[in-house]
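Hey, can you fold this?
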Amino acid sequence: MSARMTVLASLTLPGHPRSVRYARAFIRDTLVPAHVLDGGDVLDDLTLIVDEFAGNAIRHTASGRGGKLTIALLRGADLVRVEVTDDGADGKRPRLRPAPEGESGRGLHIVQALTAAWGHRADGPRTIVWADVPLAAER
């Protein structure tokens, strides 16, 4: 992680499946053109990552059972970080499964391939899942 991160914006949405499209739009509307000049790979990668994180929050946590989720965008000198905070899953945290064979379970593998680093941290009963995407010059 960069030594210093600046919060660019955050958005709280209801834990409903249609909120995922608003999360994607939030990424695109917030980052272009002021913060990600290339508008290409970095933006596409962050959009895919927030899609995965928001979808998982809605499917696997209390966020999807009448709760909410919050998306935050942060900027470091050489990367952009996206964080998705969910309402918690009774202490369960995201984990990378062994190589998935079926239709589900691939999302975090894709996130790992697109990021410099990703992970999660507890925030009381909630979970913050984060991913760092290097800016184009560092890719």
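Oh, and this one too while you're at it.
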Amino acid sequence: MMNHQHTLNQKIVSPSQLKDLAASWKAEGKRIVFTNGCFDLLHAGHVAYLSEAAGLGDKLIVGLNSDQSVSCIKGPKRPVNNETTRATLLASMFFIDAVVLFGDDTPLELIKTVLPDVLVKGGDYTVDTIVGAQETIANGGSVEVLSFLPGYSSTSIIEKIRSSS
């Protein structure tokens, strides 16, 4: 019988492990896709976005904001789910190959480490406002902006829950 928890934990990697993993995938000729976010309350919009991102290459790496980083971005009452929970939920998705936590304001150092073939962001970004876009393009990669499914937002879900209690 397979130990699924072990498999999930193997997908959650440190930045140094990620560097080695990305190098081995590149050596195998795999197309690496990188995206990042808080992914506080995982919802159908996240799943659709991440699945679409995975379809742009062979390996999907998700940079995950640490708890401290989420609090700085979203406010002191966030995240609702801690980084261990958020990382485990992401790692459970079959189309995500690696999850790496980062505590900086942006994932720029991770992007410079990985130099993905495709850098993906969702929403209303433009290429010139995406952190790591210049580095990715300079290395021969591309940058894609995917539209979010309308009607899904962790913030709106949290507000709905708080107003109903």
